[in-house]
Design a protein that fits this description.
The chain has about 210 residues and is α/β, with parallel strands linked by helices. It has one domain: fumarase. About 30% of the residues lie in helices and about 30% in strands. It has 6 helices and 8 strands, in the order βαβαββαβαβαββα. Strands 2-3-5-6-8 form a 5-stranded mixed β-barrel. Helix 2 crosses helix 3 and helix 3 packs parallel to helix 4. The protein is globular, with a radius of gyration of 19 Å. It starts with a strand and ends in a 5-residue tail after the last helix.
C-alpha cells in the first residue's frame, strides 16, 4: 500500500477529500470542531430537526471526537491545556446523519466507525482521520487558540470547541471517501489469521477439535 502525505487547509473541498486514500497521512491547518459528548451529538441531531439553531456552520469542516481540558483566564478567555481522542464507535448511530446534515468533510478520533458511517462518507465526500491514542502532547502542540465555544452551558467535554490549529497531525486516513476502511481490512486479516492459528493448534494437538 502506497502512503502519501498531505498538508490540507480547512475548510476542505470535496476534491481534496476524495483524493485521499486509506493509510495516507494528513496534517490540517485551519479551524476544527471538537467534542467528546454523546449528549452533544444528540443535540446536534435535534438541531438538524429544527429544535434550535446550530452553534456553528460546519459545512466543509472537520468534527473530531476529542476530549479536552480547558483553562479559564481572569478575563474570561479560554485556553486548552490538552486534547486527546475519544472512541468514535460510541457515535456510530449519530454520524451518518451528521455527516450529511452538517456537510462534514472530515471526522475522526480513535477506533474508527462502522460500515453505515463509511457508506455515508462515500456518499457525501467525507473521511475518517485516526488520531494517535495517548498522543495528547503531539495533538495539543498544534493548537493556536480557541475561536469559539458552542453550548457553554454544558460541561467542558460536552461543549463544541472551535479551535484554530496549525499542522494538526500526523493523522491517518482510517476510512476514505470511497468507503474503504482500514478497520475493516484489519478485522478481515485478523479473522484469516485466527483460522490459521486454530488450525495450527489443532494440528499440534493431533487433529482434535
Amino acid at each position: 500500500m502506497t502512503v502519501a502525505e498531505h498538508d490540507l487547509a480547512l475548510p476542505l473541498s470535496e476534491a481534496a477529500v476524495r483524493s485521499l486514500r486509506v493509510g495516507d497521512i494528513v496534517h490540517l491547518t485551519g479551524e476544527i470542531f471538537a467534542t467528546a459528548g454523546l449528549p452533544t451529538h444528540d443535540r446536534l441531531l435535534a438541531c438538524l430537526e429544527g429544535a434550535e439553531p446550530l452553534p456553528f456552520d460546519m459545512a466543509g469542516g472537520a468534527l473530531f471526537h476529542l476530549g479536552s481540558l480547558n483553562a479559564e483566564a481572569a478575563d474570561g478567555s479560554l485556553s486548552i491545556v490538552y486534547m486527546n481522542p475519544t472512541t468514535s464507535t460510541r457515535f456510530n448511530g449519530h454520524m451518518p446523519r451528521l455527516i450529511a446534515g452538517l456537510g462534514l468533510r472530515a471526522t475522526g478520533g480513535k477506533g474508527g466507525l462502522n460500515a453505515e458511517c463509511a457508506r455515508a462518507m462515500a456518499d457525501c465526500g467525507c473521511v475518517y482521520l485516526s488520531f494517535l491514542g495517548g498522543g495528547a502532547p503531539i495533538i495539543s502542540a498544534a493548537i493556536r487558540k480557541i475561536t469559539g465555544i458552542g453550548w457553554p452551558e454544558m460541561i467542558s467535554h460536552y461543549r463544541i470547541a472551535r479551535i484554530e490549529v496549525e499542522r494538526l497531525g500526523p493523522l491517518t486516513v482510517g476510512i476514505d471517501a470511497h468507503g474503504d476502511s482500514l478497520y475493516d481490512r484489519t478485522l478481515a486479516t485478523a479473522l484469516e489469521r485466527r483460522e490459521t492459528v486454530l488450525d495450527q493448534l489443532r494440528a499440534a494437538r493431533g487433529g482434535g477439535g
